[in-house]
Amino acid sequence: MEISQSIGCWWRGLQLWYNDQDYMQAIDAWEEAMSFISWANDELFVDMSLKNSAIQERKYLTLDGDAALLSELSPLLLFLAGCYLDAQEYQKARVTLRRCLALTSFDAERDSTTNKRDLFHRTVRECIFCVEEDPECLEPWVEARELVQYAIEVNQQLEQERLGEISEANSVPWSDPWQRPGFLYPIKNQDSVYDRLRHPSWCRLLEEKWGDIRNEFDRLIHRPGGARTLSTSPRHWPAVGSGEHRGGAGAHDGSVVAPGGDWREVVIFGSGENPRLAPCTSELLEQTCPDAVSLARQGGGEIVFSVLASGTHIRPHCGSTNLRLTAHLGLVIPENDEDHKRCSIRVADQWLDWEEGKIIVFDDSFEHEVINERSTLRGVLLLRFWHPNLPKEERGIALQKALDAKSDDELQRYSPPSPSNDGVMMLRAMEKSRCISCSRHGYSSIRLNTRSLTFECQCGQSIDS
């Protein structure tokens, strides 16, 4: 194998991407770069999970003695997989991530430096995203749990081999396969479900006022033009994931609704809010639940009336961060019938049932799903509130880190790495630095000097500081 040919194609792709903005031709060049490598035959991995196929790919490359040499290509493989995911070419993404996970896991075990471990963790996250987005993956939550468990096991093995030399900052970000949000902040003593003894004191106040909240909910359900019975979904409410829902901010949320389901919300506080729709409830929440209202106002959550129509299944998924907990106040809960059909929520491995006038509290960064198999709709008041084990003085910092991480993930989609592992160039691409001459920043300002294979600003200033 000639890895030098792959590196040459890598540089050519960078020229096409940064200088010519010819993104499709750049991807073609990177695909050519991978064609020089002797990978395992794809037929070996039919019906195999992404984690298990990566382990088999790694065995193949290790036996051939190529894994150490090929690990140099891992950053490009990860970027290329992201391109495929954006184009919804899931099979190509899966093959590329299989190879990337094989190499990054091997590399992380050889070299426990921050860069190697971070690349492995990023690869695991991208693998999770792949299986969750791929419509051909029948049980993506099962594969996602398997991937996180694999990452945990790799980390544990490293800690044992290196006698605990792995620092906390450099360790695997996950500790539980059930908990895999997009952003995971180090919070002590996290649980998936919180019993009533650990509920915030305002939970009892809301339960005492649940009748008033229910009356306001009923008025919203039955307003002119809306549903007249609880067996019909309120069509005048925005469907979760629609353009009307949360001002379009929750567009991705609808992807977890199984076909034929109907999930609708009215936002009281948070993105797309309208507190005037429920003035009594809004006033009560501002007086009694400042941790929920403040989180919503800072963009970290929302407070909504939520309805789930009969026959709706919200498939297993995880929330975006672990900075918050979620409370559900039962407002309209379908009665159980003779068929014992389910109207419940599963959080991790525990099923919970709602009761009218009662609150349940859970951490939605843990895997959860919701099912309403009964004949009428289910309605709750849903509140997100700051995690009680997150110190108040860290709230703003933690939320900003979550927002920055989301922004960084998006920018990395447009910022292909270089074979020289140019960290200064990546800082410019990720909008962490500006040109000292023209103040430009971001990936669109970068140009590759094809003679010296160094990077410059669009204005011609060298990117070296």
Automatic annotation (TrEMBL):
Record flagged with keyword Iron: no
The protein's GO terms of the molecular function aspect are: peptidyl-aspartic acid 3-dioxygenase activity
The GO cellular component terms are: endoplasmic reticulum
Enumerate the InterPro entries for this protein. Answer: Asp/Arg/Pro-Hydrxlase, ASPH, IPNS-like_sf
Tell me which UniProt keywords the record has, alphabetically: Oxidoreductase
Q: Do you know which Pfam families this protein is assigned to? A: Asp_Arg_Hydrox
Specify whether Lipid metabolism is a keyword of the entry: no
Residues in domain Aspartyl/asparaginy/proline hydroxylase? 207-388
Q: Which residues cross the membrane?
A: none
Enzyme Commission number, as recorded: 1.14.11.16
For the region Disordered, give the residue spans: 231-256
Alphabetized SUPFAM superfamilies for the sequence: Clavaminate synthase-like (SSF51197)
Q: Which family is this sequence assigned to? A: Belongs to the aspartyl/asparaginyl beta-hydroxylase family.
Q: What protein name applies here?
A: Aspartate beta-hydroxylase
